[in-house]
Amino acid sequence: MGRMMLNSQEIIKVLDNLIGQTEAVGDSNVDERRHERLKVLIDVTNWCLDGVQFASSTCGRPEGSMHEIGWDAKCALDEWHIWLGEVLNE
Q1: Residue 82 exposed, middle or buried by CB count within 10 Å (0-12, 13-18, 19+)
Q2: Do the Cβ atoms of 22 and 37 come closer than 8 Å?
Q3: pLDDT in tens, 7-32
């Protein structure tokens, strides 16, 4: 039997339900739980970024499919690099 694959939107909905809100609201009891959720979100994000970085290592390979995957991953990393620069300079 084939493995069921979720699309991006479905995965985002699952993660949103599993992790929940992370924004501080100024109530210590609520913010403590949200801080723990933020730590989970950071761990998941680190895992995702590591996977994209690993995939980017195939950019430039002579095999077309490997190059395409590597190129897409590298483009995503470049895009996030620019975005992070903008966010951190605000």
Answers
A1: exposed
A2: yes
A3: 999 999 999 999 999 999 999 999 99
| DSSP per-residue letters across 16-82 | HHHH------S-HHHHHHHHHHHHHHHHHHHHHHHHHHHHHTTTT-SSHHHHHHHHHHHHHHHHHHH
Q: Report whether 19 contacts 38 (CB < 8 A).
A: no
pTM of the model as a whole: 0.84
Measured CA to CA, the distance from residue 84 to residue 41 in angstroms comes to 17
Distance of alpha carbon 31 from the chain centroid: 23
- Check residue 3 and give its pLDDT: 79
Q: What is the mean pLDDT of residues 25-51?
A: 97
